[in-house]
Amino acid sequence: MAIVLGCSLGLRAQNVPPPKGLVIEQIIARVNDDIITSNQYQDALNSLRQEIKQDCTGCTAAKLDSEYKDQQKDVLRDLIDQSLMVQRAKDEGINVDIDVVKQLDKIRQQYKLDSMDALQRAVEASGLNWDDYKDSIKNRLLTQKLIQRDVGGTIQIDHKEIEQYYQAHKSSFDRPETVVVREIFLSTKGKTPEQSAEIKKKIEGIRQRIENGDDFGQLAKLYSEGSTAQDGGELGSYTRGQMPKGMEDAVFTLQHNQMTPVLTVTGGFELIQVEQHYQAGVQPLDAVANEIENDIYIKKIGPALRDFLNHLREESYIVVKTGYVDSAAVAESPIEEVAPGSSDEKKGKKKKGEG
Known about the structure:
Layout: E1 27-31, E2 34-37, H1 38-55, H2 61-72, H3 75-91, H4 97-110, H5 116-125, H6 130-151, H7 159-168, E3 174-175, E4 178-187, H8 193-211, H9 216-223, E5 234-239, H10 245-251, E6 263-265, E7 268-278, E8 281-282, H11 285-314, E9 318-321, E10 335-338
Parallel strand pairs: 9-10
Antiparallel strand pairs: 1-2, 1-9, 3-8, 4-5, 4-7, 6-7
């Protein structure tokens, strides 16, 4: 279920009533009218540990522990950053309500749940609160739209910059023959020969629609039954020798946006489209220009985002409890530390806007 819902699950304690007088949650930071609690902080630490395990499969316990210690210092910073961006997105009138519904429905379809109620039951069975789960998706979408508009929109990359990057990194574009492909897969598992024949007719019809101008990626999202469906069928890059022989023979004869015939594969029928076909050798600039632009953008977006967040901090009121560290604190912003036992340390969550 943890993988199904894309969350770090099974890490929360059971809902056993706490002993009388026990502080359930402590406020460890205030970000303008918002608060960050000790429970939120601990959940973020737990999620970080899970992410490191997933990203570093096969790593020793010592390596995992080292990675965790290296990254945990920024956990509170990231929580404060998100709070600042969510607040700014709301102040700017960014609305993602429709996007939240679409994202939830995408998750529902991805894991073959028959209704939104079924998704809610699955979330709650995992130990998560349904409203908190929806809020986490909403906050992520708000920050993504804010970054895209207020940060990404300020990054300018001209052709001269792309050309200079190409000349400086030309050796990295010396590559073996490579294809970038995507798929539409229809399953015949458990089907009769007659049913399989109908499925083949269906995918042949899909192929004809693409030939007539319909978008391959959109049809993959609608009809493909493969694990890549929600990503528009994206399979990634392959060099010779990485595909089954019959498929390779079909694919490596194709050029940009060309498709294979319907292929009979284990468990069903498959249609593959070549998005890019790179010949062996140093790739020409026009073949890798989009890749270079993306690389430059990624290099620029990090510092630009940090500058943007520093600006938000400078005009915000941030209070951090003693014993916790905001690793991106800006000296000019009114950041304070709150001693344990002070009036800012409360039981439970305080409503936004309260004293």
